[in-house]
Amino acid sequence: MLTGPKFRRGRAATASADPPRRAAAPAPSPKAVAVRYLARRDYSRAELAQRLAQRGIDAAAIEVALDQLTAAGYLSDERYAAAVVAQRSGRYGKRAIAYALREKGVTADAVAAALAPLAATDEFADAMALWRQRFRTPPANDRDKARQVRFLQARGYPLSVVLKVMRAAGAGDVEDL
After folding, report:
1. Which tens digits make up the pLDDT trace of 133-169?
2. At 92, is the secondary structure helix, strand, or coil?
3. Which helix (DSSP H) or strand (DSSP E) does residue 161 occupy?
4. 47, exposed or middle or buried, with CB in 10 Å at 0-12, 13-18, 19+?
5. In this structure, are residues 146 and 177 in contact, taking their beta carbons and an 8 Å threshold?
6. Helix/strand/coil (H, E, C) string of 109-147?
């Protein structure tokens, strides 16, 4: 059997030859980075600007890229707001949805336009359906009652609607919460 560096098998035989080094690829443009983000899901303009800024892109380049994407129809706060409303309606109240949109930097006009279809919906019916889906039975004691009230309030339903749901569910005296 032959041994030695010249006759060695496997990786060690080729390790002496250094692989050629690649030149560093140029950084992608802010517009290309933004398009990659938008390919995954919709973003609000403010949220996308924040993501680009976290990558170290300067503010002027971000604004130019976002203006181009808005003009091309790839970026729209109205479309983003409508998608969030469609996703969260029925599971969250109007207040919680509006709050989430404002947190993402959507303008007040876009929020109002997106919430307009929910104006005809009955929040009591939505909250009651959510309560039935989650709990199914009336609370057994005050601790359960408080937990159910907190759940509905955390979902953005006003206290007046929550108390109506608890009365309809047979929770007894809900005024002492």
Report:
1. 999 899 989 999 999 999 999 999 999 999 999 999 8
2. strand
3. helix 159-168
4. middle
5. yes
6. HHHHHHHHHHHHCCHHHHHHHHHHHHCCCCCCCHHHHHH
**What is the pTM assigned to this prediction?**
0.75
d(CA 109, CA 121): 20
- Quote the tokens at residue 2: 């032959």
Taking the C-alpha atoms of residue 126 and residue 91, their distance in angstroms, rounded to an integer, is: 8
> Rounded CA gap, 3 and 25, in Å?
42
Q: Is the Cβ–Cβ distance between 64 and 30 less than 8 Å?
A: yes
The letter for the amino acid at 134 is R
Query: Exposed/middle/buried for 161, CB within 10 Å: 0-12, 13-18, 19+?
Result: buried
User: Which residue type, as a one-letter code, is found at position 122?
Assistant: D
8 Å CB contact between 166 and 174: yes
